[in-house]
Write a structure and sequence with these properties.
heterodimer, A: about 450 residues, alpha/beta, 13 strands, globular, B: alpha/beta, 4-stranded parallel β-sheet, about 45% helix
Chain lengths: ~450, ~500
Amino acid sequence: MSKLIEQPRYSCALGAQQSIIAIKRAVPILHSGPGCGDKINRLLGQGEGYAGGNTVPCTNASESEIVFGGESKLGTVIEGAFQVIDADLYVVLTGCTSDIIGDDVAQVTSRYQEQDKPIVYVETGGFKSNNYVSHETVVKGIIDQYVDKFKVGSHKIKRLVNVFATIPYQDAFWNGNLEEIKRILEGIGLTVNILFGAESQGIEEWKTIPQAEFNIVVSAWAGLEIAEHLKNKYDTPYTHFSYLPIGGLETTKFLRQVVAFGALDVDYAEAFIKKEEEKFYMHIERMADFMLEFRYGLPRRFYTILDASYAIGFSKYLLNELGILPTKQFIIDDTPEVFQGAIHEQFEKISEFRSAKVSFSIDAGAIQEEIRKDEHKSRGLILGSAWERDLATEIGADLLIVSVPVAYRLILNCGYAGYNGGLRVIEDIYGKVLDTYR
Amino acid sequence: MSKINLNASEVQTRESRLGSITGFAGTAGELVGCARAGTLKESERSFSQCMGCSSGNAFCQLSMIQDAIVVNHAPVGCAGDFFTFNFVYRVGQMERNLPPVIGRYFNTNIEEQDTIFGATQKLANTIRTAYERIHPNAIFITTSCASGIIGDDVEGVANDLTEELGIPIISCFCEGFKSKIWTTGFDAAYHSIIRKLVKPPEKKSNKVNIVNFWGSHIFDEILNPLGYEADYIIPFSTTAQLKYISEAVATIQICPTLGTYIGAALEQVYGVPEIKSPPAYGIAGTDQWMRELGRVLDRQEQIEALIVKEHERILPKLQEYREQIQGKKAYLTAGAAHGHALIALLRELGLEVQGAAIFHHDPIYDNGTTTSDALAHAVNTYGDIPNYNVCNKQAYELVNVLNKIKPDIMIARHGGMTLWGAKLGIPTLLVGDEQLSFGYQGILNYGERILETLDNKEFVINLAKHSTMPYTKWWLDQDPFSFLRSDLNVKTY
């Protein structure tokens, strides 16, 4: 199988720097070559946030560190970071240079850990994995080297949950998605450690990770490792919902799964679900005449070129709630083989009446060639990245940019998860379509 | 400084070739003094933030050659800048009425086992697939820290596949760790082009090479009346066009930091004269540059007439701007030569330049002549500049300086820096098009933008009110150069 990548849509292991930046008042410290942080930021960042982008401390490895080792340089940069950057948590991440030459980063960092400094290190040399995988490694690193110190006893706080739902910045809508997931989980009676973004309490929230009654993983595969780790470490059980829930049907299914797993108060939860569904379907119903009568101009089939969690979530929603048919679905997150079967199954029974073809490839240049060869009789919709702009024009499709690089849209708190996200999807797709009329 | 050597597969870094540095604090006059006395030495920062790297700058030039493609031999993270360059490429196509085409770039996806067994096979396969997919007229290979450290024989693969595929496959060595001065990446790209693409001249053309990024085409109106044609390189050129740049009558660089290597290489190897005056910024600078252009192109009389005409045209408007701007204080951050040029420009407009953070300093360019020293020109023409800091994009130093100096306006040439002015409530201006300020009209263009920025304060004032600051209070109270190691050997430091 081809390993080359044309049109990259994710980053290398060091891309997990963005996961750190997504934690309130946390800062990554890169022990890497110059340029790494900037390139990651160019692909995954939109805005430098509190202390990302140009603020990120970095050893900027030069030839002398490659030859003589970069441990002492790392030491001075860490010390400088403590003095200069006002942060609650510092996470040392290695790049290709230091991992290939074999700097002992653990030894350097542990000096400061022994002084009780809030600092963690993780090996994220670019070649080691991608940022989906290293996100898990980095979160586990923070738990093992930092959170664990604050663990008091083995008691659990009733109704407290940790949510591992999305890879910040890799999911361009991470902030909005996490806000909505937290909102709906609180709606059914939980207290939620959302851990990243505006609705999180930052590092104080992380400290209560061990006390959670259970964990919730909302993702096809990335994040499961963290939940497994917490199960082994703190005996915290977890429930896994294997895609992003979008819209009325799937969000309700998600919430009911959580209610059942956590043995929550069913009446309380159902009351919330009922209210949310009523609201959601009231909007759909209000617009149904438009959506039915305007069909001549609407996309009738869609491609997804997305990661697995998004691909399944969107496919289910677009088919079952908006009546747009799936053509072939392309999954571009380098899904490990062990998870591919389960994803195939999801597409196999994407609706009661239908299944959709799915393929896994990291080379989106090849994916685009494949799509070009299809027959394009009716108006299509592509859910992909900014790379799909020309393709969409060529085949006369509408394009909703959902995956990085997003480039042609700016995202603040927009999210596509949950009930609110489902409505937002409709606004965004139909907004694109209507905008093509003159 | 060494002569251009096209036999070497790799270009020497700016540090070793030109003695360039990335750390200095003092006045501009002092820096020029050290540079001329040969006493300039590099200093290290014990604390540093993310910089850029050579591979990005090399890619910046190679990624927009119309009929070539780039294979980046690296882990996928190094391809993080593919789309941003594609974006710029598309914007430029639109401005030039070129058909919209996506940039075709490939990453070899170096993984863990490749760091043990090598990845040359992967590189060869990627090049073959890319060739099959696109059939370009040339393929450039850019290297990375990983491919460099594991020691892949990239040059060997390039040579083998040149033979196999029958098009130039050209290696460009731009490993990030090799140079602290990321503009070395420009040199690497030019080295690879001159070495493997440019042909020896067979005749002289009436073309003038313009070494630039992706700015507007302002040279047509200067050169066409003189009977010459501007040939804009490298972005948006074709491989066929690049083959014959050795036949041009002269080379102009929009910015010597960008074009030092290619300008000198074309002159040394193929006898194409390089316009060595600092680029045309400010009235005095533009006069000087125009005269040098007239000399090289043998059009002195026409140039003198043009100078008179242009002075008449712009001076009244310039006077108007000066009166409005007079007494305002500015702070500047930019790359080297362009930063120097902007200093001249700002002063010409009547701004007091309180200081500058310039990304690196080349004490001399590849042409070996001090005539090209734009900073010396700025100092000699307009006087010294205090708070002159050579700083490779270290935001923490910048925010500290700005907090102390509190200028009326901050000017930035590169993205990622304006935020720190704005968070402190200082109006900031980012200028992406380097041609905007070039020549006589450029002074007026710039004046207009500055007046707009000074006038438009509402956003920054409100932003400053609601902003958080990731820098500690302790740091903001320190000397901005506390982390610049004091064991410097620079006499005047």
